[in-house]
Request: fold
Amino acid sequence: MVNGILDYLWLVPALPLLGVVLNGAIALFAERPHLLKEAGLPLAGGHGAGHGSHDDAHGASSHGSAHGHHETPAYRKLVAFIAPAVVGAAFVVALLCVLSLASRPADGRTFVQILFPWIQAGSLLVPAGLQLDPLSSVMALVVTGVGFLIHVYSVGYMSHERAFARYFVCLNLFMFAMLTLVMANNYLLMFVGWEGVGLCSYLLIGFWYEKQSASDAGKKAFVVNRIGDFGVLLAMFLVFWNFGSLTYTEVFAKVPVLRESGVLTTGLATVITLLLFLGATGKSAQIPLYVWLPDAMEGPTPVSALIHAATMVTAGVYMVARSSALFLLAPDTMMVVAVIGAVTAIFSATIGICQTDIKRVLAYSTVSQLGYMFLACGVGAFTAAIFHLMTHAFFKALLFLGSGSVIHALSGEQDMRKMGGLKKYVPVTFATMFVATLAIAGIPGLSGFFSKDEILWQAFSSSHGSPFLWGIAALAAGITAFYMFRLVYLTFFGKSRMDPEVEKHAHESPWTMTVPLTILAVLSVAGGWVGIPAVLGGSNLFEHWLAPVFHPVAAAGAHGVAAAGAHGAESVAHHPAALEIGLMALSVAIALCGIGLAYFLYRVRTGKPAEIAKEWPTLYDVVYHKYYIDEFYEWAVIRRIVTFSNGLWEMFDALFIDGIVNGAADLVRAAGDRVRRLQGGVVGGYAFSLLAGAVLLVGYILYRSVVQ
Amino acid sequence: MIAPSAYLLLSAILFGIGVVGVVTRKNVLIILMSVELMLNGVNVAFVAAGSYLGDAAGGVFAFMVMTVAAAEAAVGLALLIALYRLKETIDITELKVLKW
Reply:
């Protein structure tokens, strides 16, 4: 017990896995027979007979006593307890582990736990190991913490859902995969988690698979992600080929050595990092692979909050930050990352202006905020990226959960044109969402302000940054403030545009939903206080905490404060503090302009937006249709691939493969057709053949004897 | 003494007549008779060779063939009667259901 609680680190991913097993058993043996019986379908599968009788008894007892759907069946109560409990327990273990890690000296904060040797093939040795260091501990805490709140929320949100257990199996499986992703100690195990979260994303987007659009969206997400995964795979091959290992600690330790020996050229580093970044654009929904995320809103709202806002989509940022040692060697890649991040940030923010579906606005907002994180990565401010990742997890999860609460209150209505005046119906939801909106808009004092401003400042001042990048990002921040307040005004303020029938049932959500909202609201306010920059009199604890990961060499020499020197502090030294404060004030002013504009358009002159749309119909149309990117992809990529595949099918499959198979069959049949005539059924013919055979045989024997 | 080649020639002629009968005739009864003729042609060869070589085995074989031929005739005629009852014909060209 040298490491104390850290020896139990494996429990963090194992606990959600336990939840998968338990809930999976319930889903298979209690819920499925129950649902099949309701639907009047027979139990499928031959082996089901034994289970079936057992489950029928179970189903009948719960169903019989329930008299309809008013009382919760026992198995649902069990699921509602297990699923959040395992994640909550994982959070507690993770928290204790991180506290234990924090008690170590700054340069010793990397704990690796090898669980078992996983792959041994030739020189490829991949252990299944967990790594807890400052970076993965931030991720693990965010994933389990926000995940726990969303699990609790889901119990309330999904209470009317029939496939209750199936939902929580997927959600728990997602937690397991995500924790594997962030806590793996090598690229390959991370990739397992990477694919695992992709699978869960697919399962949960298509959760209501009977709806065509939901099942299509699931497939789209999966296929688009495959393109990115391809890049990650190639990058892993290259890493293994050149470093001889996939384990983080070994790879990053070899970077200076290989750099010196000339193996790791800038070109090689550029290729590896660009391929990794391709994977990141897929998973984290950046240009050009962002198109799946808005469609992913077909899934249940808590799923959108957990997977498509707070955790999974940030996996790309995590991976880039994890590989920062490689990225810093490739200035070209850094520029690509920064530019793609900045362009994505402003591009998707403008789409968000015109969307009318409350969840789609948030989806484009997520894409935009992820763009900020990549912008930060691209200018070398990995700490700022992870900081924004964390605060974004709080306020964006809150926004999604709040929108879920609104949708729940309105019996499934998602169109903001049919909302309005909801403030008085759902006061808690309104208050918490308003806090999150202030946070994302960058109002000083809230979490979003500190993280976003850190990114803006780094984009301006870092050696990789430029005033141009700052300008784009600041403008995007203004647009963000605008569309978020537009969302709030359309939803909660003004006159009600709801259907009277819906309005009658509008109600505040149960405590399982409002309590997570409240906790997240507190985090949205206070989450940024760990990273108050020095210029505002803070100590930026967050940067010091992450410093050993991003500046390992410096950290080995001095303690945390000097470690920040590599990029942040060094560049800060060149710029006066007044400039930083001035830019901060400017970005706040831009955000306030956005809010003011939203107030003017959606509170004061509510008819104006429609007028503007009429005045510039083409512009409005293009933005409303998301710049026709989906249509462009349909035309430029999908149709080409379909045509090519059709050609392949007709040329290769139908002609070549089928030709061989059918040709062989035709040959045999033609031969048989000839040979069958020998057996005509006429006995005389048979007799003649016998005779002929005998004559030939005798003739041959005679010939042989004569020749000899 | 007649030369052995004359016996063998007789044997070959008998055998040949039998073969032609089996191949060309349509009546099953005649085909059976032709088969008997072939067997007897062979018998002649056996006896002649046995006598020429002074070996009794030739005669023994001839008796053996006669015994088998008798059995064969009995079975063959029985089949023929069964066939006639079934098909009401003994024309071999009519009986051609046994094919592919």
Q: What stands out?
A: Chain B touches chain A at residues 19, 22-24, 26, 92-93, 95-100 (CB under 8 Å).
